[in-house]
Amino acid sequence: MNDNKKILVVDDNDFIRMQIGMFLKSAGFEVTEATDGQAAQDMLSSDPHLIIADVMMEPVGGFAFIRAIRNQGMDVPVILVTGDQNNDLLEQSNKLGVASVLIKPVNKDRLLSMVQRALQRTG
């Protein structure tokens, strides 16, 4: 069911990025990785079905990256990953049309269920 579904994972923490990538690959997804929002923007030609992005990254963070792709007219679903649980973050996520927010540490089952829900919404 997940064959040919491409997911772009954007996180500046190598361990977390590889962990999320491993979880997704084990579920049959095709995974591309980027270390920050700028690198991710350069990879968007791969046309992912879903993006999983960390909020706090340098030099280009998750929100700046999402704003940039929304401004380009990309309506791809985004799952934000963060260790932060403040209300401003959730409010900003809603404004940018983020599919869901995943709180670190990343739990494999929760990640995969969020991914399935986000992909079902887009067909």
Description:
By secondary structure, this protein is of the alpha/beta class. It has one domain: Rossmann fold. 43% of the residues lie in helices and 20% in strands. The chain has helices at 14-26, 37-42, 62-71, 87-95, 108-122, and strands at residues 6-10, 30-34, 50-54, 78-82, 100-103. The chain is globular, with a radius of gyration of 13 Å. The two termini are 12 Å apart. The model has no long low-confidence stretch (mean pLDDT 91).
Quick structural overview:
The chain is built from five helices and five strands, in the order E-H-E-H-E-H-E-H-E-H. It has about 120 residues and is α/β, with parallel strands linked by helices.
What labels describe this entry?
123 residues; alpha/beta; Rossmann fold; 5 strands
Strand tally is 5
Q: How many helices? A: 5
User: Structural class from helices and strands?
Assistant: alpha/beta
CATH class descriptor? Alpha Beta
Q: How many distinct folded domains?
A: 1
Task: Tell me the radius of gyration.
Answer: 13 Å
| Helix/strand order | EHEHEHEHEH
N-to-C span: 12 Å
At CATH level 2, the architecture is 3-Layer(aba) Sandwich
The biggest beta sheet is recorded as: 5 strands, parallel
Q: What is the assigned CATH homologous superfamily?
A: Response regulator
Helix content: 40-55%
| Poorly predicted spans | none
Overall average pLDDT: 91
Strand order of the largest sheet: 2-1-3-4-5
- Give the percentage of residues in beta strands: 15-25%
Shape summary: globular
Which fold name is given in CATH as the topology?
Answer: Rossmann fold
